[in-house]
Write a structure and sequence with these properties.
Blueprint (H helix, E strand, L loop, with lengths): L10 E5 L3 H12 L6 E6 L2 H10 L4 E5 L7 H11 L4 E6 L4 H9 L4 E4 L4 H35 L12 H13 L6 H7 L4 H12 L3 H19 L4 H7 L5 H12 L3 H7 L8
Parallel strand pairs: 1-2, 1-3, 3-4, 4-5
Helix pairs in contact: 2-3, 5-9, 9-12, 10-11
């Protein structure tokens, strides 16, 4: 574990129905190489849900089997309310089906009891690393959105003089270009039929909607290639392409350079993909 993260003193909650286990966990984390703030210690899933709602935990260590509500049920509820919280399941049952269920539902990690301090510290380190990655991703997304706010209004025909529906459509695309966005979805979002929306967009901008969507995605891709070290496959996914090869072909067609060529020639962060 590398404690040098941008998350000083991660806030944690400990949940186990056995008080001796809770006491042991508290002792272990009081000596953690990465100092933590223990928000509270609870003995059942309902109290864990309540405390997580009242506080803002970074990580929760949760026993998998407890009376009333299981750790998995409590974890599911907590992650639905606070998806940024990382849950680590603790269990004395060496049954891989429990681990499969936990990981399938999005639990961060799975540690067998009685948990050794190093195993707990390692799990904490992985959780903090994931939190750090998510925060970095959010920062990159915010930078991208700011950049798009600067460049997208320059698209031909899209201005304050455009039809309100077109401006709404532009805003929708800016917010959803990473998704499986289509003309039909955008037309529905601005309460127009696809056929009428298509004709209106072409009339107001001089370009068809699909070309505008591609333009937005390419501008976003160019920014990510220059300003981040994301691999090409992740850049593709970040701008709405599930197939990296399809993205590369489209990028080459629109920009007249491959993504790698563009990154190298424009001084991007990642020199070799």
């Amino acid at each position: 574990m590398n404690p040098a993260h941008d998350l000083p003193n991660p806030k944690i909650i400990l949940c186990d129905d056995e008080q001796l286990e809770c006491d042991a966990l508290q002792r272990i984390f009081s000596q953690s190489p990465l100092p933590v703030t223990i928000l509270g210690v609870v003995n059942n899933g309902l109290d864990a849900i309540r405390l997580a709602a009242e506080e803002t935990p970074d990580v929760i260590f949760m026993d998998i089997r407890m009376p009333g509500m299981s750790g998995l049920e409590a974890a599911h509820e907590i992650m639905a309310q606070k998806p940024e919280t990382q849950v680590i399941i603790l269990s004395a049952f060496n049954d891989f089906s429990y681990a499969q269920d936990a990981l399938r539902m999005g639990v961060m990690d799975y540690v067998l009891k009685p948990a050794e301090p190093e195993a707990l510290y390692a799990a904490l380190g992985r959780a903090v690393e994931r939190i750090h990655e998510h925060e970095t991703s959010r920062q990159q997304q915010a930078m991208l959105e700011n950049r798009l706010a600067e460049i997208l209004p320059t698209y031909p025909g899209v201005s304050g003089q455009s039809d309100d529906a077109i401006l709404q459509a532009v805003e929708y695309v800016r917010a959803h270009y990473q998704e499986d966005t289509s003309l039909e979805k955008v037309a529905g979002a601005v309460s127009l039929s696809p056929a009428y929306f298509s004709r209106l967009f072409l009339k107001r901008t001089g370009s068809n909607f699909q070309q505008y969507l591609i333009w937005v995605r390419m501008e976003a891709a160019k920014y990510l290639l220059k300003e981040t070290n994301l691999p090409i496959g992740e850049v593709a996914g970040a701008v709405g392409y599930s197939d990296a090869n399809h993205f590369s072909v489209r990028f080459k067609k629109e920009v007249d350079r491959t993504p790698n060529q563009y990154r190298k020639e424009e001084g991007g962060h990642r020199k070799n993909d």
